[in-house]
Design a protein that fits this description.
8 strands, homodimer, 2 domains, Crp/Fnr family transcriptional regulator (chains A, B), 4-stranded antiparallel β-sheet, 9 helices, cNMP-bd_dom_sf (chains A, B), 195 residues, 52% helix, cNMP-bd_dom (chains A, B), Jelly Rolls, DNA-binding, alpha+beta, RmlC-like_jellyroll (chains A, B)
Chain lengths: 195, 195
DNA sequence: AAATGCACTTGATATAGGTCAATTCACGAT
DNA sequence: ATCGTGAATTGACCTATATCAAGTGCATTT
């Protein structure tokens, strides 16, 4: 299946609507395929996030670096997820985040101005945007609650049940950072839960 | 200014579009005013969040209670904010949250089905929804980053600069809980930063 | 096969922030 | 004015998690 077929299926499935041939032509004309090798950056801190990318293949992490040089992973992303720093993308502000490919990465990317066009012209695209926005809001609410009310161990168990794929796809130190833990602490948590 | 005038101004300002007289009639027909006294609940854990409320006056907190009986405040809300547990509201699932009035509260409320209608029929309403969704996404991203990378003191300073009104409107123990801190810790942080 | 480099583990120690208990403060109700 | 209640402060102590340092196991490169 080609990259665009994957993408079209995704839109139709999430939105519950069909794309016309015209819709598909429009999307193909303005979403550009882009490939990144592992370790390459989709976005660097300080740059404006001009593109939003739909991940067709591979994985990425969104992270900040604090004054002490410590990295904090905010988001881990896999196939069929969208990749962007939304604050920078919507407001055209320089980003405080880095987005780096953790595996070889293939995305379909487009600009904010184009997305506005798709929203106006393609009903399935706009329906998809609404569903995604709902899902994001819900996921954020959950994650925030987990961060505030759960212990390290509970957050790890939560991750296992909500995103079991993460354990296969991401190294443990990345998962630790995503959970807001040091790699040592995650290692000890795993040791204890196996006994 | 009446409740609805406040509401209409808000929609027009956020969306950048004007409401027609028909639009206004439609909104007035399906947003119901509701008043809650301080301490009353807008939503109780276990119930489905049937209504979304627009706060015209007053304030509220959204919180969970963990197994140890500790409360965790996820959201503090003031005038011109929306009040709902979106997970429960969108998915019609029983809520894990409580929403309680912290001051006497006046909201305009409506149901999910009605909101869908407004989105279809009122361009300004739908434009507003898009802007709000962007703002939420950005605010969530920021708050998550703060929770993961900042110390307690930095989070408090962040709050002071982003939401100075909170200090006037909410008691310190609520703010502590919102920041994920014990009241004692927040008290000590304030003491230190005054020296 | 040796060498290099990472991810992961393990142990010892440090620290931010939590918990518990006592005290003071503010204010609404009588 | 006084009482009562809940908020805020303060001190002593505790705990979860971070930090630092050393060691182990595996791939990848040479």
């Amino acid at each position: 299946m080609s990259n665009f077929e994957v993408f079209f299926d995704y839109i139709q499935e999430i939105s519950g609507k069909l794309l016309s041939e015209d819709d598909k032509r429009l999307l193909m004309a303005h979403f550009k395929p882009r490939k990144l090798r592992k370790r390459q950056y989709f976005l660097q801190e300080g740059d404006v996030c001009k593109y939003i990318g739909f991940i067709v293949k591979g994985s990425a992490r969104t992270f900040t670096v604090d004054e002490k040089g410590h990295e904090h992973i905010l988001k881990l992303s896999l196939e069929n997820w969208w990749l962007a720093d939304f604050e920078s993308f919507y407001l055209l502000k320089p980003s405080r985040f880095n987005i780096e490919a953790l595996e070889d990465l293939e995305v379909l990317q487009s600009t904010n101005a184009q997305i506005e066009e798709f929203l106006k012209q393609i009903p399935a695209f706009s329906a998809m945007a609404n569903v995604i926005s709902q899902n994001y809001t819900i996921a954020n609410q959950k994650r925030m609650q987990a961060a505030m009310s759960y212990t390290a161990e509970e957050r790890y168990e939560d991750l296992i049940s909500n995103y079991p794929q993460f354990l296969q796809r991401f190294p443990q130190n990345m998962i630790a950072s995503y959970l807001g833990l040091s790699p040592e602490t995650l290692s000890r948590i795993r040791k204890n839960s196996f006994k």
